[in-house]
Input
Amino acid sequence: MTYQPNSPEARDIAYHLHGYTNARRHDEVGPLVIDHGEGIHVVDIHGNRYIEAMAGLWSVALGFSEKRLVDAATKQLSKLPFYHSFTHKSHGTIIDLAEKLVTIAPVPMSKVFFTNSGSEANDTAMKLIWYRSNALGQPQKKKIISRLRGYHGVTIASASLTGLPNNHRSFDLPIAGVLHTGSPHYWKEHRPDESEEDFATRLASELDQLIQAEGPDTIAAFIGEPVMGAGGVVVPPRTYWQKVQAVLKKYDILLIADEVICGFGRTGKMFGSETYGIEPDMMTLSKQLSSSYLPISALMINDRVFQPIADESNKIGTLGHGFTAGGHPVPAAVALETIKIIEERGLVAHAAEVGARLQTGLRRLTDHPLVGEVRGVGLIAAIELVADAAKRSALDPVGKLGTLVNGILQKNGVISRNMGDALAFCPPLIITAAEVDDLLARIARSLDEARAEIGA
Ligand code: PMP
Output
């Protein structure tokens, strides 16, 4: 693309290094420069309007123009623009938020530690698990099991937990002590004639074998997203979590639920853990926690985790961990207001209701020649694109079809995201039934256009 000198696009190309972007091709592809937001829509600098069908990065629960969040931030900025949580300091907003999170947690939780991104929350989980094992006199119990296709962030530890090649290759990751077990992606990974139930049983058995092979007393924790997001929206088989938890219990292995995407209504319940009967010892939260208006994340821990950590910090003198902006009052005020709005407007039940409409509508597309599978729960879904539905084969190379359909959707006023050939949808929780229908119509039209383009 060529742009006017000094245009926002030209300056973006000149000065801005983007994450999750091909840095060499950026000047060719060019940036989509967003100017402002209105409800579930964003508008670019040329006036084109898009349904933000990914809620930004699975995160803008309340849409792009919630005045109450702006007011909450402004009020907090005027009153106390910064304070911290080190050396026994605190402030009212973070106390309110910690209490609120413990109150709404799906299982008994003891304490909340505040961080600024999902990656930091997971990184902190890993460090506190190591700290706890040392406190318990089990220095060998340090390994953490995560899953292939899982996504837990990009810091050195959390990127190691992430089970995607892109996050490891050329970064010299993963670090030692992180193990990956299979992902519950039935459509991609089941064996011929294997039922979903048998597939879940096999995954649990493979997990058990991995633990046995490594030595059960060396494994400290297992981490997983209730529904995998960035790995392609992987909805687990119905009994998967129950079977995995039985294995973890057998070996006294802690369970971390990464609720960074699933938390706050995404799956049609307040937490993904509720949707799947997960009973975590630790939970990481971010994204919809503040509707992403400001960065904030949190790690919740139960008493089994907290008590040894408290003992160890007492022995050493202080818990040597904490971020300058962890527990920052302004994002905390926005988070409190976000949760309040979600509760007041019944947005969790709403997500279940409009989510069902989205899921049904997308499943009607299963007959389309480019659709291999539709999966999802609540307001998170993916279409697995195939060049040949009968053969389940992708267009060569993998991701070409996903990129093509994603581009056509953008032209048709929808921002979605393709992870390879899995096309994800994760709209704001405030989406209405009429807006779901509008989105579905645009998706159907885009698939037809893609089909015509490939045919041509
Ligand atoms: N966990 C999950 C499940 C996520 O989806 C993400 C972000 N997509 C993260 C962790 C990392 O969060 P952040 O990008 O804020 O570091």
About this structure: Residues 57, 117-119, 122, 151-153, 225, 229-230, 258, 260-261, 286 surround 4'-deoxy-4'-aminopyridoxal-5'-phosphate (CB under 6 Å).
